[in-house]
Amino acid sequence: MKFEFETIGVIHSPFKEKFGIPRQPGLVSQVQATLELVPPFNRPKAVSGLEGYSHIWIQFVFHQNINRDWQPTVRPPRLGGNKRVGVFASRSPFRPNPIGLSVVALDDIRCDSGKVELLISGVDLMEGTPVLDIKPYIPYVESLPEARSGFAPSAPAPKLVVHLTPPAEKQLESMLDPSKLRKLIEAVLETDPRPAYVGASRPDKVYGIRLYDWDVRWRVRDLTAEVLELVEAQLKPGKP
Amino acid sequence: MKFEFETIGVIHSPFKEKFGIPRQPGLVSQVQATLELVPPFNRPKAVSGLEGYSHIWIQFVFHQNINRDWQPTVRPPRLGGNKRVGVFASRSPFRPNPIGLSVVALDDIRCDSGKVELLISGVDLMEGTPVLDIKPYIPYVESLPEARSGFAPSAPAPKLVVHLTPPAEKQLESMLDPSKLRKLIEAVLETDPRPAYVGASRPDKVYGIRLYDWDVRWRVRDLTAEVLELVEAQLKPGKP
């Protein structure tokens, strides 16, 4: 049986591309984003009462993974990228139905001149992610601290120290509000977002991760993520 | 934007109709059910590794509520059925996209002669519910005991004492395994599943709730749910 669903909202996030996005929500609590309801769902009434909740569920579409063939097994990054587990035993975006599920903190609700926006944080969501549903998080039902968890029983420890080279430091300090981008760079790079299969084989490779409107260029040396420079990704006014 | 998704599994549950289904998962932990993967998703590999998790998320379709118009507000039963809140601040099945989300206990996985079945408990799911996705529950991300919860901060207290009349008691005791049905009857009726708007206005009304293959007939008197009789709902062999 097939079912058709409609986008009710869209995510605006500092993550402009897949690379570097935290692998679970909450891991990078610094990451703030916006969920904007789209017409005809942009009704302030539809979110009335949601302000009583500190956290919400977002059910969304991994929109870059639609129309892909599904595979019964996947290689989770937490297992080093070379051990396979069943797709339903993983949170991989490559699923038979590419529906994602994230719990995020609800910081504020803004209803202004036809716009209805939820300000959220701790997101692992990419810019432009289509949202299918929003639900309140109900701790007495959904908080199960004693639940047994397979291959990822606890949050991953930071893997890298993050260091900005003098040129990158200078660029950052010339911004109006450097602290937001600094925190995000540190939080994202300390998790070592390099693909698991690269590892030590290409020690000098320079990576670029787009955060807000900046292309952050970095490489790894001696367990340190070295930020080389920040390149303006677009001709739009720099953010943050 | 619209997206189409396919059924990957189907629920087999003692709840054969909507009336009487617990309003959240986990409220009636006695309720056991089965999630059966449907072709081409019935591959044992697709659930390999899931046995390491005690709980799973089920994303499913409220299939009796598709093609309904959505309303920006709903009346949650927990507020007595007369106060309205935004549909996205509720877990109501009447949503713009009728996608449900339940955490359930995973008791066992059975892969046998082409069938792949997950044995689950604590369900609030009706017989025949189409499943869109299964994901492991990850406590270090999803267990948030300190989360603030709006109008339903804790589990509802039992509202009714459950009493079986002598004829109902006799019928129950004549069954092969009466304890499963007895526990389910008690767990379901003590929550007072009557619609909130009925209340005291029709004190003598007799209700029927279908559990397994039995139509359980009951009424409420003096805060007691009085079970009058058990009627075999079908000519199939009686269960449990």
Structure overview:
The structure is a homodimer of 240-residue chains. Chain A is globular and about 50 Å long. Chain A has two domains: 9-142, YaeB-like (Elongation Factor Tu (Ef-tu), domain 3, Beta Barrel); 161-232, RelE-like (YaeB-like fold). The first copy, chain A, starts with a strand and ends in an 8-residue tail after the last strand. With 240 residues, chain A is mainly β. The longest helix of chain A has 12 residues, at 178-189. Chain A contains three helices and 13 strands. Mean pLDDT of chain A is 89; it is low at 235-240. At the A-B interface, strand 1, strand 4, strand 6, strand 7 and strand 9 of A face strand 1, strand 4, strand 6, strand 7 and strand 9 of B.
- H/E topology pattern of chain A: EEEEEEEEEHEHHEEE
Instruction: Provide the CATH superfamily of the largest domain in chain A.
Output: YaeB-like
Mean pLDDT of chain A: 89
Oligomeric composition of the shown chains: homodimer
Q: Treating each run of at least 4 consecutive H or I residues as one helix, how many helices of chain A?
A: 3
